[in-house]
Design goal:
This protein is an alpha/beta fold. It contains 19 helices and eight strands. The chain starts with 5 loop residues before the first helix and ends with a helix.
């Protein structure tokens, strides 16, 4: 059984493990982080903690690469009843030796029964969701990760509260939204998302749910915004996704357009991960993927470094490599070094 670090045991009074870590331990999963609550006022804690979060109501502590979020409580039952969902409203007392036991679970909201039944339920849905509409997106995340069904009162409250999501800090939305999109049971969660209007309020098109679910999680984002870059612009303004995701979706959109119009600039700019995703997208949307499949199988006989030896430099290398790829992929030239280098010399001569 998991042990809580001794330094926390000695520093914190009336310590409980709560929230998602309890849920995951019950499911036999290893928690990624641990939420702890204590009656010790946070300002009296003398541990080396990182920056405060949650409006100063939580401090963090790392031990051996594991993150512990520490919050203060006055009443254990009230603390648990205020949490977003019953499956996250369970607690385990931490013993003086740092151990915890699932036999000692504190469960005032019926979270254990809901978890066994695969049910997503809020103990007080109206207050819970309207006080923090981001909890609605967290609910979709849990459906997508744990294959849950939604209790009707909870579903109704999620639909009503989602309309208030424009009142929360936009930076808080992406993390649970991303976990919803990339979850194992995305299709199930996406159907709930459409019911409550998330697709329209957050500009996340969900018309192609069946096709999207079969993709690797990293390829779902560009599939969602396939041929919908105008909607993607609105999504960016509402959700504030990270720059790497914007770049990922944008590049794959550009590459797909180039492939569709028989252009070959993508061949010298695309990474292996991008080419694998592009190939999946073309197949899912039933577009001709022959060129990309051939590209993925080929080990080109000439490298950019070899073009430098024949005098190519700077942008010339990119231009020549693009023409070489085009000629090989369209079978105009054999993939043989001598043929390709002679072809490269001809192009270089014309460039000069």
């Amino acid at each position: 059984m998991k042990r809580i670090p001794k330094i926390l045991i000695f520093s914190l009074e009336n310590l409980y493990l709560v929230g998602g870590a309890v849920r995951d331990l019950i499911l036999g999963l290893e928690p990624k982080e641990y939420d702890l609550i204590t009656t010790t006022p946070l300002e009296r804690i003398r541990l080396k903690t990182f920056a405060e979060s949650n409006n100063g109501q939580t401090i963090g502590f790392f031990s051996k690469g594991v993150k512990y979020d520490i919050s203060h409580y006055s009443s254990l039952i009230e603390d648990l009843e205020r949490r977003d969902f019953t499956i996250n409203s369970m607690a385990l007392p931490v013993k003086k030796n740092g151990t915890i036991s699932l036999k000692e679970i504190v469960d005032p909201c019926g979270g254990l029964d809901d978890l066994k039944a695969g049910l997503l339920r809020s103990f007080n849905p109206l207050d819970s969701f309207f006080s923090d509409p981001v909890r609605v997106v967290r609910g979709l995340r849990f459906i997508s990760e744990y294959d849950l069904n939604v209790e009707q009162n909870t579903l109704d409250a999620m639909k009503g509260a989602l309309k208030e999501i424009d009142k929360v800090a936009r930076e808080r939305i992406f993390s649970p939204l991303s976990k919803f999109i990339e979850g194992k049971y995305f299709q199930k969660a996406a159907k709930v998302a459409v019911k409550i209007g998330l697709d329209k309020l957050l500009f996340v098109p969900l018309e192609n749910i069946d096709a999207i679910e079969i993709l690797d999680p990293c390829c779902r984002w560009p599939a969602i915004f396939w041929e919908k870059m105008d909607v993607f612009s609105k999504f960016i303004n509402v959700v504030f996704p990270p720059k790497h995701l914007i770049r990922w979706i944008t590049r794959l959109t550009i590459f797909s357009e180039e492939v569709k119009h028989r252009k070959f600039g993508w061949t010298v700019r695309i990474s292996k991960e991008e080419s694998n995703c592009l190939l999946s997208l073309l197949k899912v949307f039933k577009l001709n993927s022959d060129i990309v499949e051939k590209y993925a199988r080929l080990d080109l006989a000439v490298t950019p470094q070899e073009l430098i030896f024949i005098g190519a430099k700077g942008r010339e290398i990119s231009i020549i490599m693009t023409e070489i790829w085009k000629s090989v992929l369209t079978s105009k030239l054999p993939n043989e070094k001598n043929h390709l280098l002679n072809f490269a010399r001809e192009i270089l001569k014309n460039l000069h």
